[in-house]
Amino acid sequence: MLAIRLSEDIERRLEALAAATGRTKTFYAREAIVEYLDDLEDAYLAGKRMEDLKRGKDRIMDPEAFWEGLDR
Question: DSSP state, 11?
């Protein structure tokens, strides 16, 4: 269970959206968290990938070699 405090402005916007669509505030809060969490995870993975590249722990594959490997 998670409890959060929202500013009055955000609370009003959330209430208006819920009322206009017939969905609950919880539905939209959950959707917003999931969407943002997906973005944060993507950003973390991209940052980790860049660090691995900088440290030589990984490399970028040549696109032509990639496609040739698929043709085999």
Answer: H
